[in-house]
UniProtKB/TrEMBL annotation:
Protein name, per record: Acyl-coenzyme A oxidase
Taxon lineage: Eukaryota, Viridiplantae, Streptophyta, Embryophyta, Tracheophyta
GO biological process, one term: fatty acid beta-oxidation using acyl-CoA oxidase
Residue ranges annotated for the Acyl-coenzyme A oxidase N-terminal domain, each copy included: 14-129
Cofactor dependence: FAD
Positions of the catalytic residues: 421
InterPro entries in UniProt: ACOX_C_alpha1 (IPR055060), Acyl-CoA_ox_N (IPR029320), Acyl-CoA_Oxase/DH_mid-dom_sf (IPR046373), Acyl-CoA_oxidase (IPR012258), Acyl-CoA_oxidase_C (IPR002655), AcylCo_DH-like_C (IPR036250), AcylCoA_DH/ox_N_sf (IPR037069), AcylCoA_DH/oxidase_NM_dom_sf (IPR009100)
Ranges for domain Acyl-CoA oxidase C-terminal: 476-652
GO cellular component terms listed in the entry, alphabetical order: peroxisome
Family: Belongs to the acyl-CoA oxidase family.
Organism: Artemisia annua
Acyl-CoA oxidase C-alpha1 domain boundaries: 275-436
Amino acid sequence: MDYLSDERKKSDFDVEAMKVAWAGSIQEFQLSDRMAKLVANDPVFEKFTRPMLGRKELLKNTLRKSAHAWKLIIDLRLSEEEAKWLRLYVDEPAYTDLHWGMFIPAIEGQGTEEQKKKWLPLAKKMQIIGCYAQTELGHGSNVQGLETTATFDTRTDEFIMHSPTLTSSKWWPGGLGKLSTHAVVYARLIVGGQFHGVHGFIVQLRSLEDHSPLPGITVGDIGLKFGNGAYNTMDNGVLRFDHVRIPRNQMLMRVSQVTKEGKIMQSDVPRQLIYGTMVYVRQTIVADASKALSRAVCIATRYSAVRRQFGSRDGGPETQVIDYKTQQSRLFPLLASAYAFRFVSEWLKSLYLDVKQRLEANEFSTLPEAHACTAGLKSLTTTATADGIEECRKLCGGHGYLVSSGLPELFAVYIPACTYEGDNVVLMLQVARFLVKTVSELGHKKPVGTTAYMGRVASLMQKNSAVQTAEGWLNPGAVVEAFESRAARMAVRCAQELAKFGNPEEGFAELAVDLVEVAVSHCQLIVVTKFFEKLQQDIPGKGVKESLEVLCYVYALFLLHKHQGDFLATGYLTPKQASLANAQLRTLYSKVRPNAIALVDSFSYTDHYLGSILGRYDGNVYPKLYEAAWEDPLNDSDVIDGFHQYVQPILKQRLHSAKL
Ligand SMILES: CCCCCCCCCCCCCCCCCCCC(=O)SCCNC(=O)CCNC(=O)[C@H](O)C(C)(C)COP(=O)(O)OP(=O)(O)OC[C@H]1O[C@@H](n2cnc3c(N)ncnc32)[C@H](O)[C@@H]1OP(=O)(O)O
Ligand SMILES: Cc1cc2nc3c(=O)[nH]c(=O)nc-3n(C[C@H](O)[C@H](O)[C@H](O)COP(=O)(O)OP(=O)(O)OC[C@H]3O[C@@H](n4cnc5c(N)ncnc54)[C@H](O)[C@@H]3O)c2cc1C
């Protein structure tokens, strides 16, 4: 029985076509769909018992799933794209993520041709397992502050890897704790007693025979992390070197080379390329944000249509909680954000692929913008997603707190995304630096790409919003101009404040809070713009484009409402115009309402991937919640272990004293 069938009948767009729009193309949809079903129908990938497992069982279970996934990849000859979808739907962080997601890309991006030829075939056949060992106990954000040393010894043509202090211990790398045989280790290069910056080195950590740590290496897991199950399927590790020697050719030498004689040769490649793997991963994290948020929103939307509270008339049914305006005002902006993040990630991927191609041809001019966009959008989307998952939990009331809702585990596994691959505030400060530089160069350099609007700063500073009615906000030009003006005015105002400081670094530190707000406003502008640009494309299917248009306005006007202080303070909007935007937002929520279930069905998630009783496709929530409670191990017996030992004596004592 489909308890949501009436809801599904209300929608006015073609869901199958929306699934394609969400996936990006029919090919991508079919590929994703095939992998989702493959995983959902395979008992090895069962995940409901995960939160009940102890750490050792949990990790072993992950190893079993990873081995099974690898077997499927080989046996079914899956392409790299198919393998990525498979990994997504298996839905369990594993050491293989860092091997494929960071170790291999680090060698691809920073290795010489010779190094790639030697290491990539071994890694791609998984004959070695690698991780990305950058962060230390004492430093994560400040990469230049890393303390591990790689000292060149001209006599033996080797580097000596060493951990000189406790705080230099590598700390956090995923896959390092128990599984990696190798790592790309980031360390201070020392040649002839001089420090030459931080570089990557391929270091073997464990024996390929018996997996024991090699001499001079101390390695282990850093311990249990937030939440049951969740990220504890990953062996984040600690690593120390005691004068471990590696051959000279294991330094990744695309950026700088060290010769046999101990000379440092700089290539034309900028030093920042050493950070290139992070640019790649940040881009993938933006795509993952839309997946995590859409998953939470799918659960909260379906449950909000099933759940009823208050409002019964003459004994009739109570009101579905999705019909409360307050519920809509919390849920629908998240639904719109999931779509917005999906489309901005699509754009970011194309920007990244373009930069990658240029880098391969030694053309580096677009790297700063790629860095600013990946850093800023990673920060913006992961913050909104982490907050959004928690909001979805609250939108599901008490039942959202049950593990069987799927939301606690999703939250626990997701929140480190705000920290890993760059703390979100630190990353926004990078965007701010980029914007301040752009503003300072306006007189002699035409801004391009996502900062092109800064080239129109004079007019953006003068012109105020012309919107006169609520309908007036349904105009891409009016909305984009509002976001451009806000970002440009905030940037210019900050630049003026910065100019008052004699020392720019001192000014940057003092104004950091305002600078982060500027960076956020710039990143929101990118997301809004890319959503409107997506709508310019041919999007087939009855009502699909129209529904996306509604979501685009919901996303933009929700932000405008939330940050109306900025829009008003910069003088671009009047209070009346801000309140017209809010009135329009209410109308838009009414347009989303009949399509809400169809819009989350369009994510095409299987019940296996959602992992949620509240989010079941058929809406059969209460019987399944009731059934699941009886499956809890506590309900194996009526009288629990420990009762006779610890509780009964107390009860007896009370009975005894009652008699007295
Ligand atoms: C068969 C197939 C199977 C397929 C399976 C597929 C599986 C794939 C799975 C993929 C999923 C991957 C899952 C990942 C899970 C997450 C794991 C998390 C891993 C980590 O966390 S790794 C560690 C990350 N660490 C950080 O992010 C540290 C943050 N800090 C920094 O980035 C920098 O240090 C900082 C803060 C940016 C720099 O500070 P500062 O010291 O001021 O800077 P510098 O002096 O060093 O440089 C300034 C200069 O450089 C520019 N810059 C900075 N960063 C970059 C960059 N990344 N790119 C380009 N340029 C950069 C900066 O703008 C400055 O430029 P100027 O022109 O102003 O000088
Ligand atoms: C689950 C998980 C997996 C990880 N996997 C890996 C991995 O595989 N490989 C790896 O190398 N690392 C990994 N990391 C480490 C991760 O990259 C770092 O934790 C991250 O970069 C943040 O650095 P930090 O811990 O030094 O934070 P800190 O920089 O110490 O942050 C602490 C606080 O200080 C603030 N702060 C720091 N600097 C500034 C500044 N300049 N201005 C203003 N505020 C500032 C931050 O905003 C934050 O509030 C992982 C971390 C986690 C949680």
